[in-house]
Amino acid sequence: MTLYVINPNSSQGVTDGLKKALSPLEALGHPIRCLMLNEGPPGIETQAHIDSVIQPTLQLTRTLDDATGFVIACFSDPGVKDIRAETALPVLGIREAAISSALTLGNRFGIIAIRQGSIPRHLAAVDAMGLSDRLAADRALELGVTELADETRTLQRLLSTARHLRDEDGADVVILGCAGMAQYRARVEAATGLPTIDPTQAATAMALGRIFLRQSHKPEVNHA
Amino acid sequence: MTLYVINPNSSQGVTDGLKKALSPLEALGHPIRCLMLNEGPPGIETQAHIDSVIQPTLQLTRTLDDATGFVIACFSDPGVKDIRAETALPVLGIREAAISSALTLGNRFGIIAIRQGSIPRHLAAVDAMGLSDRLAADRALELGVTELADETRTLQRLLSTARHLRDEDGADVVILGCAGMAQYRARVEAATGLPTIDPTQAATAMALGRIFLRQSHKPEVNHA
Amino acid sequence: MTLYVINPNSSQGVTDGLKKALSPLEALGHPIRCLMLNEGPPGIETQAHIDSVIQPTLQLTRTLDDATGFVIACFSDPGVKDIRAETALPVLGIREAAISSALTLGNRFGIIAIRQGSIPRHLAAVDAMGLSDRLAADRALELGVTELADETRTLQRLLSTARHLRDEDGADVVILGCAGMAQYRARVEAATGLPTIDPTQAATAMALGRIFLRQSHKPEVNHA
Amino acid sequence: MTLYVINPNSSQGVTDGLKKALSPLEALGHPIRCLMLNEGPPGIETQAHIDSVIQPTLQLTRTLDDATGFVIACFSDPGVKDIRAETALPVLGIREAAISSALTLGNRFGIIAIRQGSIPRHLAAVDAMGLSDRLAADRALELGVTELADETRTLQRLLSTARHLRDEDGADVVILGCAGMAQYRARVEAATGLPTIDPTQAATAMALGRIFLRQSHKPEVNHA
Amino acid sequence: MTLYVINPNSSQGVTDGLKKALSPLEALGHPIRCLMLNEGPPGIETQAHIDSVIQPTLQLTRTLDDATGFVIACFSDPGVKDIRAETALPVLGIREAAISSALTLGNRFGIIAIRQGSIPRHLAAVDAMGLSDRLAADRALELGVTELADETRTLQRLLSTARHLRDEDGADVVILGCAGMAQYRARVEAATGLPTIDPTQAATAMALGRIFLRQSHKPEVNHA
Amino acid sequence: MTLYVINPNSSQGVTDGLKKALSPLEALGHPIRCLMLNEGPPGIETQAHIDSVIQPTLQLTRTLDDATGFVIACFSDPGVKDIRAETALPVLGIREAAISSALTLGNRFGIIAIRQGSIPRHLAAVDAMGLSDRLAADRALELGVTELADETRTLQRLLSTARHLRDEDGADVVILGCAGMAQYRARVEAATGLPTIDPTQAATAMALGRIFLRQSHKPEVNHA
To answer: Which of chain B's residues have a Cβ under 8 Å away from the Cβ of F115?
Structure first.
């Protein structure tokens, strides 16, 4: 029996990063497997990308017969509602899991987006959770693909953005608004003193808890 | 190393119930120990009770040198802020954990209180989380001590209250608003089809995730 | 040049109903054409249905070269964000248009859903618009397919639901939460005295206004 | 039959500007007539001005026997509630219409006020619509009467304010918070890429839609 | 020097009732004088009534040279903003004062309206204060003029409405939504156990506090 | 009979300041007595401090037999809920009183905190009152103990913070977020033109009003 963490893009690098980010949770003794969506785009950057992966992600989950649960490892939570409609197994989107985790780590959470263009989607999701009053701000790294490949450059920008969220926007918790940033989490925390959430870690821990507690979004009704 | 689940009242029955409720999480391999507060009241029913246990609970946590984290198993979250101020270990109140868990299990959560008198405190806590728009309603069982001792009677009332939350108030998730109701969770789910949250289970699973992920509300700053 | 009103399901009856509902707007002199999605399901009732029509709807809009704007005539607003990402022409979802129209017709709007199962989606959408405080309630007709075919039965249920929204929930505006109910609008108004919104009419009027005003969600930047 | 757009101040220049701003809507074939309130102040800048025009505006509407609807072209919506209490014809205030239109053009709207002193009134109105979470910010041009007469100066200030709303406050839609700014709308859009709403245009388009759809805030009850 | 409590309607009975309601505050030693607006309507029941009294009320305040502050004793707060714009003396509307007082007497306040037709205005005011999440419900007595003259009948209806607010709507504070109900306050409290606010008493006490504390909404700037 | 204003810290200087701040209210003729908590910390700066004073404050109130009401003069409102649970006399916390007073003095209130570390507590309290949309910002003086002893330095920082709240954050009311700042209130008002609230003055005036009006949070039920 396996908890599947699905990266809906086709980047092997991101998928390997997920695997590494989740290694501390392997100690819990439940198999976790990270998959990627081969037909997905290399990265999920637009609304069209998001919607284009919903159907294939849904298809993929249908084939995973030994699944005990699913984590959709994209900060846009593509297909989460669809998969939930089909299964009673725990299904978690990393954005909703990160945001709900943030509520018990501080008063005001800040989100670090990769691109400015994702922010309206993030705001709509925060509004939809009824949590806009808890959001300090959502700020973008605004780094190009090549810059993102440069780890020093990316870290530098992550730190300056996290400090801005803390000092100007009043954030006391930071959410890394992307599936591929776990490797920086500890360094952001050490540099800012702010609890920093990697959304895939948060969602996977939450999914494991639900598996062990048999906590389903759709419990079976006993007509007896 | 141990995760301590502290029942701030002095009821052995409640404490034994917690132990039983958490047994599914023992499979995760991390020691969990349920303690009770000997100097606490038999039950925590008033604001005065709540505040009277804050200092002793805080004292108790100071003596638990092998702690990896703390769960305060009272739906009023007494002392959670105080303990967090003193330690960087995960500290979770069961009310805040239950409410944040509910956000990913449905749109509108309903809370089942034991007593009418607790509802204003619950509402204030939901407001303080910025989540009043997500609350369907908070309804009380209104059972006396002797009735609560009668399991059939209590279950009956739990089911009618949960159905009311579902059918009249529009709740699609139920939170058991008390530490001592875990034994009824599966039956409420089977009878209503609504995901039902035992707050101590939710908080303990969350605490374990944080321990494994080293997710602290107060990460150490690296001045190097 | 034509404003296209797209019914993402494959029901000819609904599509004919849209055409009739929009006839009062033909007087404005701008061509309006109602299309349906042949590959769509007969009705859109589940999250899976919703997501299954996004791609085909998007495809369809790409083929409509003489379009001056698009109205997506399904109360789940499928694909609206995607189409907006591709075009600067006005694109309106009927749900968002109905809800924003309701704000200037009263203080508290009530929504009449066809099925109970749609209500959580409606609530999430209202939350996402930041308007949960303006919502009086969302109530379902709970009629089966055959009953919906019975106009007398449907009207009767619509009226009792609208009266409940008015008298119990405090609604002073009613939104028909479905694309296929326009024929009942005048009768609901005459029976209840409440302004009643047919979402497709509201969205189409809004789209025409934007076409004439050249009001785009994505105006062209003049780099001159 | 005529839709009356009433400028509650006595500035001929503003009234002429309204007429020009609405010319694109004449193509819809419904007569639109812009009137001004001769007894009104030259400009409406204070709460006292606002309330002083309510009665005369109400009086004026009573004399317009061929009216099919009314638009009150002052961003403080003076008398809108009063007129609605007297007639079943569509009555729209330009502020409420602009704000409700903004909801379908972006996530966060910014308002450009002429004077700092109007901002508290705007905020109260946004709060009253339940939309404070959708407001990015409200910023004033702070230009004196003579500066406002200087079109280049005014445009320059409009653009810098719109850019500030976009870049610092996160607005993705702009509302021109005054009846007399339509002439700048296209230039603000071209310079910023943000959808920009002229409130009188928005309200008049909305009023026309209601006239054609016979959408009243007070439908007649059929006691038959 | 005198604090003026202005009843904007022309009912001597209501004015006498105000005088009586405020007698406990005479012990504070500051002169309080209740005036009525002779040109006002006998009762203020519609939006038109409300706006019709704004100018005369404003005029009246201008003539009261020995004023130390003003209370506008109508639950629609007519003219409050206008008077504040003209004077730095304390100016309080009874509705806003009652609602802000309720915040420190309980979690959820209920409002008792005289007429159903006033409720949308009350809701808009509560929304405008940003307090819709604190409102339990607003319910009307729905008594005709003659019934209101019958004290027994009115009390009976007040008690049943207050009990409904408490038991069905979850209110733990009651606001009498009218200037003329003070005589019933003690009886509503004794019958329900709920803190019950007479808005004129609340506003007058608040005004006196501001007079003694020299707390102005518009303090003088010292340019020295 | 006496209204007791309790300073839960053990600073004589602060207690003397309270006495002075309240002298304008002595004119109301009701005895007011300021006490301090000898066993309290010299200042209340942490959550642990807050909770450590709850029990002793509660004890102290039990000994004050001639009390007509209580004001808890610490901006964290420690023990307010507990004392209310024990008595029907008016009990006011200075934070809640200041915030509810601010609602009728402007649209957006700003809070001046002494220390950055208090801001999360303030935000949680504002959220709990459902008022986060009315808060402009909460900014800290960030002065050390010695600097706070320097009145010129403190005033200077208060003024710059108040101006920042006004000019950058849009506050039109200022709350001094501490019990010991009353001596600066008039100077902040004179320098900024913003209504400025000393929380102890606001709470004490409110308490006096309740004493004279016999307005209790827990009225006696008449079972006759």
So the answer is: none
Count of other CB atoms within 10 angstroms of residue D167: 11
Question: What are φ and ψ of residue F115, in 5° steps?
Answer: -120, 145
A79 to chain C: closest CA residue: C51
- Do A121 and A152 fall into the same domain? yes
Task: Check CB contact of C47 with chain A, cutoff 8 Å.
Answer: yes
C220 touches chain D (CB under 8 A): yes
Contacts of D106 in chain A (CB under 8 A): 120
> Cβ separation of F190 and E24 shorter than 8 Å?
no
F36 and F131: one domain?
A: no
* Whether A43 and A60 share a structural domain: yes
Q: What is the rounded distance in angstroms from the CA atom of residue E110 to the CA atom of residue D73?
A: 36
* Among the ranges given (A187-191, D52-56, F161-165), the one the predictor scored with the smallest mean pLDDT: D52-56
CATH of the domain at D156: 3.40.50.12500
Decide: F198 and E96 in contact? Cβ < 8 Å.
no
Question: Does A108 share its domain with A67?
Answer: no
Q: Are residues F76 and B82 in contact, defined by beta-carbon separation less than 8 angstroms?
A: no
Residues F120 and F109 in one domain: yes
Q: How far is CA F212 from CA A147, E179, F66, in A?
A: 69, 19, 15
Q: What is the pLDDT of residues E80-116, one digit of tens each?
A: 999 999 999 999 999 999 999 999 999 999 999 999 8
Those chains having 3 or more beta-carbon pairs within 8 angstroms of chain A are B, C, D, F
Tokens 């608003």 — which residue? B177
Residue that is written with structure tokens 């409009």 in the block: D158
Chains C and E form CB pairs within 8 A to the count of: 16
Q: What value, to the nearest 5°, has the Cα angle with vertex E114 and ends E108 and E118? A: 80
The residue of chain E with its CA nearest to that of B117 is: E172
Q: How far is A2 from chain F (nearest CA, A)?
A: 40
Does D145 share its domain with D178? yes
| Segment D101-159, tens digit of pLDDT | 999 999 999 999 999 889 989 998 999 999 999 999 999 998 877 888 899 999 999 99
CB contact under 8 A, D128 and E132: no
Number of domains in chain B: 2
Which pLDDT band holds residue C148 (cuts at 50, 70, 90)? Answer: confident
Residue spans of alpha helices (H) in A27-79: 47-63
* Together in a domain, A112 and A194: yes
Q: Which pLDDT belongs to residue A66? A: 97
In chain F, whose CA is at the least distance from the CA of A167? F116
Query: By the 8 A CB rule, do D211 and D73 touch?
Result: no
Residues 6+ apart with CB under 8 A from F223: none
C218 Cβ contact list (under 8 Å, min separation 6): C84, C87, C88, D193, D195
Contact flag E82-D130 (C-beta cutoff 8 Å): no
Q: What whole-number distance in Å separates Cα of residue B155 and Cα of residue F13?
A: 57
Number of Cβ within 10 Å of residue F90's Cβ equals: 26
D-proximal residues of A, 85-124, CB under 8 Å: 119-120, 123-124
Same domain, C84 and C159: no
F127, A106: Cβ pair inside 8 Å?
Answer: no
Domain that holds residue E68: 2-94+201-222
User: How far, in Å, CA of E44 to CA of E78, rounded?
Assistant: 10
Query: What's the CA gap between F92 and F71, in Å, rounded?
Result: 5
Give the ipTM of the model, two decimals please: 0.95
Q: Is F24 on the interface with E (CB under 8 A)?
A: yes
Residues 118 through 147 of chain D touching chain F, CB cutoff 8 Å: 119-120, 123-124, 127, 132-133, 137-138
Flag if C133 and D130 touch (Cβ within 8 Å): yes
Strand partners, E111: E138, E175
Partner-chain residue, chosen from D120, D127, D138, that has the shortest CB–CB distance to F106 = D120
Q: What is the CATH number of the domain that holds E16?
A: 3.40.50.1860
Which amino acid, E163?
Answer: R
